[in-house]
């Protein structure tokens, strides 16, 4: 169970977020100011930090830089009520992995957090990239070599099918553009179906067949690319 | 009117008009003086040359001596003026006094006396400056040739008198004229700058509240055009201040209403004891809060469109695809088929954040109002030399009468929850910021489309 640190000075919002994050299955520790956050970060290990930028005592930017100096791999999701791109860029340059502008919906916060945790676990786990469709059905993709399992059954995948599937799983629920896929493929040897965007359709078609009855489907998004989604039950 | 040392129109004009005049007067005076002196000298030289020649003619060789036939009358003429005395001397051999009324030194070294041609030079005699004409002549027979020198000198006092008179007669009237001219120039500048002072006085009495046009009926052309430009600025200011005021009033109303609703629903929820009813109340509180949040976001982004923006060329087609990708999960959740078509590259001069806001608003609108099962297409094309970004849906659309009003602030085509009537107003504002326009059109057989028409980068 991921352990999160929530740093937010507004009590109403902190209380609400804590409860909702806990409901979503996270362990949450919260801090009301930057100094307290630093103390907590020094004393315990966290999987991710949700950080408000406008904090009393030690402001959010300072905390962010402080985190980057000590815990470079710790994913940080920044919350900001500030308007305008300058603050956002400044926030991201200082080391934020993602940001959300207040007010935001809980769904959005959870989705961004999920994607942050998935990304950060990818190299660290070394084991597998998992998508849980339901308790019974699971897709696991080996992040290093072309292997994947659907419900413990190994899938038969070519190198290119595997890298396409990894990319889609990595961006679950997000659109992957053709350019993204072709970019990943560039570094890989050809394996049969040729190259170019026609080839992409061939691979997508093959993957769709292999994912049949998995509860996962690849959506074709007109003019934009492909998106892996968990089919509605 | 202005602090000393600061740039002043009056001072500049005076400087540029009077300084060249002063320089001209001085140059004119000096020139006139010099010319007069040269002519006076010429006149003196001429009379001296004549005198020395006539005197030389009167000296005739007689045997081994010289006979000077110098009649009394001629002598009187030479010596008549006591103030402007003429001194003459005949010497033979040159330098040894023979005849005359004073001793005159020979020509200075370097001035070679030519035979029969008089030479002219200056010298000082008894402390007085003199002009001298001197001629050397040969006489006597071949076995014993001899030389004599005839010199006539005239005081330069006359020349100095002429110069003094010239200064009086030429320079004094010139200076008087200059003084009169300066006064006229000064008065002219004063008079010419008066309309500016009037304009200043008119503007000084104004406050931010009184932005009425400046009255300039009898102003000269330049001030008139300045006042006209100022009046245009004032009109624009007045209009935008008016808009601002109206917008603030509208916004206050729009913000207070959902907050009042929120408070009342929350109060009802607190009194509620039955779980199902409590759930319902809370759902309403949530809806109200989401609506307020959306409204605040829209109001802030509207305010942001009014700030200064820096336009930079960017690929709007790529930006549109990025935005569409970001919106895809929401479109999927709303049951809408969101897609992109058109050019790979469409370059426009744009502010990325504002353009993102505009396209986001258009997609948001389409997802909200086109309804589940609809198709929404984001398009990047070139049409009639314009860069076009548009969002088309096949939803119910709006009536022909309403499509003219969709860009008005706080105007809403439907009472579906969540909207605040600012989305398309923001889009229109952003289009204007990019020197373009936003156009709403109805699509056959059904649907609605908003196009951003932007000039080519």
Characterization of the model:
The complex is a heterodimer of chains A (233) and B (457). By secondary structure, chain A is of the alpha/beta class. Chain A folds into 2 domains: 122 residues, Response regulator (Rossmann fold); 104 residues, Orthogonal Bundle (Arc Repressor Mutant, subunit A), CATH 1.10.10.10. Chain A is built from 8 helices and 12 strands. In chain A, the strands form 3 sheets. In chain A, strands 2-1-3-4-5 form a 5-stranded parallel beta sheet, sandwiched between helices. In chain A, α6 crosses α8. The two termini of chain A are 25 Å apart. The relative contact order of chain A is 0.09. About 2% of the residues of chain A have low confidence. Chain B is of the alpha+beta class and 457 residues long. The relative contact order of chain B is 0.07. In chain B, the strands form 4 sheets. Chain B has a 5-stranded antiparallel beta sheet with strand order 4-3-7-6-5. Chain B has a 5-stranded mixed beta sheet with strand order 9-11-12-14-13. A two-stranded antiparallel ribbon of chain B has the order 1-2. The mean pLDDT of chain B is 83. Chain B has 3 domains: 154 residues, Beta-Lactamase; 102 residues, Helix Hairpins, CATH 1.10.287; 146 residues, Heat Shock Protein 90 (2-Layer Sandwich). Classes of the chains: A alpha/beta (233), B alpha+beta (457). At the A-B interface, β12 of A face α5, α6 and β9 of B.
């Amino acid at each position: 169970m991921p352990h999160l640190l929530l740093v937010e000075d507004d009590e109403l919002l902190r209380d609400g977020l804590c409860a909702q994050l806990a409901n979503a299955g996270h362990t949450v520790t919260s801090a009301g100011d930057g100094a307290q956050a630093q103390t907590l970060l020094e004393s315990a290990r966290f999987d991710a930090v949700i950080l408000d930028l406008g904090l009393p005592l030690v402001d959010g930017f300072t905390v962010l830089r402080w985190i980057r100096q000590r815990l470079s791999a710790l994913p940080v999701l920044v919350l900001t009520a500030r308007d305008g791109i300058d603050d956002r860029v400044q926030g991201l340059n200082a080391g934020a992995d993602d940001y959300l502008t207040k007010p935001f919906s809980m769904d959005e916060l959870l989705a961004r957090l999920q994607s942050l945790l998935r990304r950060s676990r990818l190299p660290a786990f070394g084991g597998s990239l998992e998508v849980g469709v339901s308790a019974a059905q699971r897709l696991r993709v080996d992040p290093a070599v072309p292997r994947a399992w659907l419900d413990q059954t190994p899938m038969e995948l070519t190198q290119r099918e595997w890298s396409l599937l990894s990319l889609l799983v990595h961006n679950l629920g997000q659109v992957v553009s053709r350019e993204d896929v072709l970019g990943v493929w560039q570094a890989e040897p050809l394996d049969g179906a040729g190259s170019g965007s026609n080839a992409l359709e061939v691979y997508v078609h093959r993957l769709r067949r292999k994912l049949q009855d998995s509860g996962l489907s690849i959506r074709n998004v007109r003019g934009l690319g492909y998106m892996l989604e968990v089919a509605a039950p | 009117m202005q602090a000393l040392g600061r740039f002043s129109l009056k001072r500049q004009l005076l400087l540029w008009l009077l300084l060249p005049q002063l320089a001209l007067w001085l140059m004119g005076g000096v020139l006139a003086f010099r010319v007069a002196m040269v002519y006076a000298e010429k006149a003196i030289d001429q009379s001296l040359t004549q005198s020395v020649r006539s005197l030389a003619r009167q000296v005739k060789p007689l045997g081994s001596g010289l006979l000077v036939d110098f009649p009394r009358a001629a002598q009187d003429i030479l010596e008549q003026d006591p103030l402007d005395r003429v001194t003459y001397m005949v010497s033979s051999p040159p330098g040894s006094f023979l005849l005359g009324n004073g001793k005159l030194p020979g020509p200075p070294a370097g001035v070679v006396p030519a035979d029969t041609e008089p030479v002219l030079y200056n010298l000082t005699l008894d402390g007085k400056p003199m002009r001298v004409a001197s001629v050397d002549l040969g006489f006597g027979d071949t076995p014993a040739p001899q030389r004599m020198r005839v010199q006539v000198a005239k005081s330069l006092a006359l020349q100095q008198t002429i110069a003094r008179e010239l200064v009086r007669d030429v320079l004094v009237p010139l200076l008087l004229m200059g003084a009169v001219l300066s006064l006229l120039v000064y008065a002219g500048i004063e008079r010419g700058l008066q309309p500016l002072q009037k304009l200043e006085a008119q503007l000084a009495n104004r406050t931010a509240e009184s932005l009425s046009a400046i009255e300039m009926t009898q102003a000269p052309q330049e001030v008139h055009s300045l006042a006209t430009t100022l009046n245009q600025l004032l009109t624009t200011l007045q209009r935008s201040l008016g808009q601002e005021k109206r917008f603030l009033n509208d916004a206050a109303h729009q913000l207070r209403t959902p907050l009042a609703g929120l408070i009342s629903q929350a109060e009802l929820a607190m009194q509620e004891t039955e779980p199902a009813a409590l759930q319902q109340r809370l759902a309403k509180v949530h809806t109200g809060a989401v609506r307020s949040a959306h409204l605040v976001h829209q109001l802030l982004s509207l305010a942001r469109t009014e700030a200064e923006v820096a336009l930079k060329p960017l690929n709007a087609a790529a930006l549109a695809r990025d935005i569409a990708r970001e919106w895809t999960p929401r479109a999927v959740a709303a049951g809408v088929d969101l897609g992109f078509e058109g050019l790979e590259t469409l370059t426009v001069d744009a502010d990325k954040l504002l353009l993102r806001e505009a396209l986001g608003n258009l997609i948001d609108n389409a997802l909200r109002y086109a309804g589940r099962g609809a198709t929404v297409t984001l398009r990047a094309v070139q049409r009639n030399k314009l860069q076009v970004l548009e969002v088309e849906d096949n939803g119910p659309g709006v009536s022909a009468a309403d499509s003219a009003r969709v860009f008005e602030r706080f105007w809403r085509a439907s009472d579906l929850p969540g909207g605040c009537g600012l989305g398309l107003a923001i889009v229109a504002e952003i289009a204007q910021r990019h020197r373009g326009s936003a156009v709403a059109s109805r699509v056959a057989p059904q649907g609605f489309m908003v196009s951003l028409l932007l000039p080519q980068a």
